[in-house]
Amino acid sequence: MITPAFRTLSRLAVVAGIGLALAACDVGKEPTGGQDQGANADPQTGSDGNLHPNADDIGDTLRVGLRAGPDGFLGIVQNSATGQMLSSLIQPGLVDSDFQDGKLTYLPLLATRWEFSQNDKKLTFYLRKDVTWPDGHPITARDVAFTIDLVGDPEVASPRQSSLEKMDHEEPVTVLDDYTVRFNFTVAYNHTTMIANAASVEIVPEHKLKDVPRGSLRTHPFHKKQPFGHGPYTLQEWKPKESLTLIRNPDVKTEPPAYIQRILIRIIPEYQTQLKALQNGQIDLMEAISAKDIDEVKTWPDVTVYTKGYRFMDYIGWNLQNDLFKDRDVRRALTMAIDIKKMIRALLTFNGHAYGTQAYSTLTPELTAYRAKAPTFLPYDPDKAKRILRDKGWKPGPDGILMKDGKRFEFKLATNNENPRRAQAVVMVEQDLKKIGIKANIEKYEGVKFFARLDHKQFEAALAGWSAALFVDPSDIWATPTAKEKRPFNFCSYSNPRVDELISKGLATSDPEVERKCWIEMQNIIYEDQPYTFLFWRSESFACNKRFRGIKPNVLTTYYKLPKWWVPKAEHKFKF
Amino acid sequence: MTTFIVRRLLIGVILLGCVAVLLFVLQELSPYTAADLYIRPDFPPVAIDQITKQLGLDRPPIERFGKWLWAACQFNFGRSLHSGEPVSEMVLTALPNTLLLSVVALVMIFVFGVLVGVFQAVKQYSTSDVGLTFVTLFFYSMPSFWLALMLVMIVSWLAGGQWPIFGMHGDEIQIKLSAIQEALSHGRAPPTSIGFFEYWTDVGQHLLLPAISLGIPPIAGVARYARSSMLEVVTQDYVRTARAKGLSNRVVIFRHALRNALIPVITLLGLYLPFLMSGAVLVESIFGWPGMGRLIVDAIFTMDFPVVMATSLLLAVLVILGNLVADILYTTVDPRIRYG
Prior knowledge:
The structure holds 2 protein chains of 2 kinds. Chain A has helices at 4-24, 81-90, 141-152, 191-199, 206-209, 221-224, 271-280, 291-298, 328-337, 340-348, 382-391, 420-435, 447-455, 475-478, 497-508, 512-529, and strands at 44-45, 51-52, 59-66, 95-100, 103-108, 111-116, 122-127, 173-177, 180-184, 233-239, 243-248, 260-267, 285-289, 303-318, 349-350, 353-354, 356-358, 395-396, 402-404, 407-408, 410-416, 439-445, 461-467, 532-545. By secondary structure, chain A is an alpha+beta fold. Chain A has 2 domains: 7-284 and 547-571, D-Maltodextrin-Binding Protein, domain 2, CATH 3.40.190.10; 310-538, Dipeptide-binding Protein, domain 3 (Roll), CATH 3.10.105. In chain A, helix 9 (328-337) packs antiparallel against helix 11 (382-391) and helix 15 (497-508) packs antiparallel against helix 16. Chain B is an all-alpha fold. Chain B has one domain: MetI-like (MetI-like fold, Orthogonal Bundle). Chain B has helices at residues 2-29, 45-54, 61-73, 87-122, 127-140, 144-158, 171-185, 196-234, 237-244, 249-287, 292-301, 305-333. In chain B, helix 4 packs antiparallel against helix 5 (127-140), helix 4 (87-122) packs antiparallel against helix 10 and helix 10 packs antiparallel against helix 12. Chains A and B meet through helix 1, strand 10, strand 11, strand 12 and helix 7 of A and helix 2, helix 4, helix 6, helix 7 and helix 8 of B.
């Protein structure tokens, strides 16, 4: 029924609609926030011929699209990659990490220098004396000791506590004076790993947290709303599931202040929406561009695509407790039946560009020091695979499926269902195995449940993946579980005494050459044993608006040296 | 009527209790817990055990449920197992955003659904009627998330990338707010300002595409209801009388027939609100709208028991209230209906 009220509302709705449409004409107009004041803002050309920023170039906003936000900001308890990235900007640790020439190295940050004792079991850090917390309290060695104490406290349940495993449990850290702190190890090993274990966690303020119940750190405002840091950026606002704003800290002491005034992180769960937003210029940076989209993104005029190295690998893990997979030769036959090169062509190669490489081990090929020269991959040879299986007693049954002693060669091949690449890979594996008479029944699980099943060893075979660390510690995946060391990531129940020896030796030496030989031999043995069918490493690409300069892709992180990124003043999109 | 409402509310409370027990039992049937989220190569297993204790997941189920129920009766839904935030805060932050989206979508569904249905009834079997049937069923059979993705593509292309496709606020507003906040925190005069109209226009622009994605598919359902109901009403004697009196078609339809034709449509009103709240799940994810839908989905995937319980109970409350509102509206629209 048309009432006067209804008429009024209708007219208001029309007016509002016109208003919205007209206002849309203003959206996206640039630049915003006032006119260019005409300052002479030309960046300087350095002696290397490249453009370098100057003080006038400070400003602008980097808008980042992410699919999920952080779970918090306190490095000792936070649990997400995004959180770790943000923590490193807000609350940097003792050292800054770098990865160059195939090696992980460390640079001074809160610590100006460090040294190992003669027996390599003690690592002493010398701190800067001019860095303070935002309330003016100096950052001292006591804060470092307090942080390590929290990490090791079971009540805190820190994910970083495994970094203290090789430290003296009674006294992992000794405060020598206000600005000198020593880490006490029980065994000497690779120096890079020792520094990683000692110095990678972000330091927290003792004077602010010493009276906080340790079990409640995960709900403390420092973790949730008001991180307390001294880094190049500070947190201005966090709206969970919506956005997060970081503001440049001009008073940072541990490194030169950043150039970009503001980082605005927008949470956009849907990949396609993120991609469209990047194309529209509604965000400046997008991580994890899918390989199939890279060539298209490269055609966009305002965007540059950067490719980092290999950090992620996919593999098929065979549960060695299952009778089908106990025999090494059978596993090798399974690998020979799978066309891995075809998989790389189908899933990771687009327009002639390959965004993946065949995997040989769980050590990333980026660690060039530990890369076996010209690794010999098992060939794709289904006929040979059939012969091997026949020699092992597997003969085709009435339906063509191999049988032995009345048992069919049939198993469940599990994977997680959120990953389209693995969804395709698992079908390709199923088809390849079918050709040699093996039946793989595909099962897909939601991510958390899939990894829980792996953890509880409730699987027969699984197509999964690893994200590689840039320092080497293969014990959790490849060492034999004992009563003391559970090795929960040895999902496949792999055990090889020689590999155990090599891992112990490699982790206990500080001699780089001895270590290198251990890891190379270890990789060769594991590849021969084939507890996994190693599929491929894939590279990751991200894209950023062209106005941002100083971006150097590095396998460490998308945000490598973010404080050094800059935008020439004349190109600033946001003037505030 | 008061007795009726009180009786329905009391039944609602019992229903909520049953829903809570059912949800808890379903959660317990899962062999996995929120602590399993932490299973990762760089997360030591001993810490997983410690977190299990910290979250209270090692306590007997009956103890956990009892504690939760007692606290829930005092409107304290605990803390998220995943983020540690108070659940009530999370819900109070997300709920208004989803209500805004749902109400706008609801208005769209009913206004356009009724208008289309009435038009089709008046022009029964005409080309317009057939055409509208085709169009409305086309959109009715379209999943809202697919429509959302198509809108993102099409609008981006049509508007040259100028129309917002995600979030609740634009960068301009966020950056201005940030600049104002930063200046004030340093005791400086803000470099800019944001007007009321500017702010709400920005929200409106961000709201439009999600509301269309959520609102358009159900329009066909409402239109079909309205059409068949209107066709039944226009054959009634009183409508024939109204026409015989010489009243215009518009007056006959909108003043005499529509009110009675709306009765079955009003049934849907109460049911659509919880439907929209839960249906917003996918649309909110695609548009990055920070509402209840995303909260629910994230909670389910992270086995965040307190958040799942709170949000599911909230949906149950909305279903109960929605049905109650529909029944009360019945009596408003049709004076013949009275409840004892």
